[in-house]
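[Discussion] Sanity-checking designs against the backbone

I'm trying to build intuition for which residues belong where. Below is a structure token string of 496 positions. I'd appreciate it if someone posts a full sequence so I can compare it with mine line by line.
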């Protein structure tokens, strides 16, 4: 029962590490994202990005990094906030400010990236932020079609989006059959040509760090910008067919990889179960359910090491060894009665002071005593042939380093004898199981963290490694088994 509790504890640690729990106190996500892109006749676009933020915890900044081409310029940037306190129009400041002045935003071009950050004050609430901007030369005009190829959502958002809608409006109405639309990103999206002027792309459950791109072509004659000398529609359609084929192939390959990984994992587990049945499962022995007499003269400390199977030695083994030495008449325990006065008559009465007397002065030469028993006698009677239990406790408390050294020596002595209880081959298989499974699950954990969480997964990676190690260590104890002789003895002692 104790091992089962520890097993569940480390499973909890593995999947719900303190770092994860702590991180979960400050999170956000997007219940809804609506992006409207208006294509202008001069080949520029006007973008309205409306994001509903659901904040859990305290937040004071949001930011965008929007990739641009060298010939593109972003202008007419504005930012508004809507919430319980109404709408707020943010003022633009020249540069990002570390003091984060509330209700302001800054926009700066860094190479081919426009960095926009806005400062707010939000705590456990839902707010709507709307970012507007225009981008020049965002649309390409060919001889046959105009093309918008735009990354509507970048891969820098470290939060999920429940529902995302991207709407594209042409500058004028055209024939629906002359409009083509594609999207790159999650496979559950749906593209719709609403009418001769509007197209819409909807996608659910956009994971964090996932981009969404849209590509749309339409008649070139609705643009009045510079024309490139190419009939581009056949090339674009071929590129999208190739991209779709690659996407389907990648999805099938991923599915096949997942199935293969699951099959390999179950094969691995099944293989270890078979090995455990051969190398780790205890022998079948017939032992009565209850015994009323000790089954052997095994030393008490060794009984604990035997039953625990992994040679655990607690402080109880020390106390039991002293009592057993008294039974062997190596020492004598004297109970000296005295009258305890108590306080105001409360607690008064007879009490006892226990004295330990060393009877066998030549215990070092006693062949019937084990080494760990002799170490107990040497430690207890280091300053004479008798000592009270109270004085012994005080001595152990006053010199903890010496006490710790003694107890480690005592434990090692018991464990040395206890190793004989365990079948020699089982320790080898325990070590093989521990090493191989630790390596396997650390590799699997690394892959899972990268695929599901990206760089953010490593925030609690160390905690999960610790959880994996202790979980594997705990399970590896199943490969420890008693030798046939010890198996009978252990089960007899458990029956007793």
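Best answer:
Here's mine. Compare freely.
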């Amino acid at each position: 029962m104790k091992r089962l509790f520890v097993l569940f504890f480390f499973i909890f640690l593995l999947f719900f590490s303190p770092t994860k729990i702590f991180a979960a106190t400050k999170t956000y996500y997007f219940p809804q994202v609506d992006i409207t892109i208006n294509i202008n006749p001069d080949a520029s676009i006007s973008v309205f990005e409306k994001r509903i933020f659901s904040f859990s915890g305290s937040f004071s900044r949001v930011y965008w990094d929007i990739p641009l081409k060298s010939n593109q310029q972003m202008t007419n940037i504005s930012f508004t906030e809507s919430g319980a306190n109404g709408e707020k129009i943010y003022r633009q400041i020249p540069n990002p400010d570390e003091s984060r002045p509330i209700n302001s935003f800054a926009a700066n071009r860094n190479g081919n990236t426009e960095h926009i950050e806005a400062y707010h004050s939000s705590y456990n609430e839902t707010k709507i932020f709307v970012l507007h901007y225009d981008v020049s030369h965002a649309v390409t005009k060919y001889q046959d079609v105009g093309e918008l190829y735009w990354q509507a959502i970048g891969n820098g958002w470290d939060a999920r989006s429940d529902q995302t809608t991207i709407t594209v409006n042409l500058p004028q109405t055209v024939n629906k059959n002359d409009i083509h639309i594609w999207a790159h990103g999650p496979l559950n999206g749906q593209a719709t040509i609403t009418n001769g002027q509007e197209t819409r792309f909807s996608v659910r459950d956009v994971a964090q760090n996932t981009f969404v791109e849209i590509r749309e072509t339409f008649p070139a004659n609705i643009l009045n910008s510079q024309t490139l000398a190419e009939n581009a529609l056949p090339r674009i359609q071929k590129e999208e067919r190739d991209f779709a084929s690659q996407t389907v192939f990648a999805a099938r390959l991923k599915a096949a990889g997942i199935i293969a990984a699951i099959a390999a994992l179950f094969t691995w587990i099944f293989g270890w179960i078979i090995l455990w049945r051969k190398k780790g499962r205890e022998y079948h022995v017939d032992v009565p359910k209850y015994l009323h007499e000790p089954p052997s003269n095994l030393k008490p400390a060794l009984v604990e090491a035997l039953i625990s199977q992994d040679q655990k030695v607690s402080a109880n083994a020390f106390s039991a060894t002293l009592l057993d030495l008294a039974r062997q008449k190596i020492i004598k325990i004297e109970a000296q009665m005295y009258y305890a006065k108590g306080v105001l008559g409360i607690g008064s009465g007879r009490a006892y002071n226990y004295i330990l007397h060393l009877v066998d002065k030549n215990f070092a030469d006693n062949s019937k005593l084990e080494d760990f028993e002799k170490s107990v006698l040497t430690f207890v009677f280091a300053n004479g042939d008798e000592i009270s239990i109270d004085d012994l406790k005080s001595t152990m408390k006053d010199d903890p380093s010496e006490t710790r050294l003694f107890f480690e020596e005592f434990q090692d002595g018991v464990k040395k004898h206890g190793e004989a209880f365990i079948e020699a081959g089982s320790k080898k298989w325990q070590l093989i199981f521990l090493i191989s499974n630790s390596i396997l699950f650390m590799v699997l954990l690394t892959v899972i963290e990268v695929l599901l969480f990206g760089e953010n997964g490593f925030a609690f990676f160390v905690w999960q490694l610790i959880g994996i190690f202790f979980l594997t260590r705990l399970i590896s104890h199943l490969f420890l088994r008693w030798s046939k002789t010890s198996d009978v003895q252990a089960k007899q002692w458990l029956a007793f």
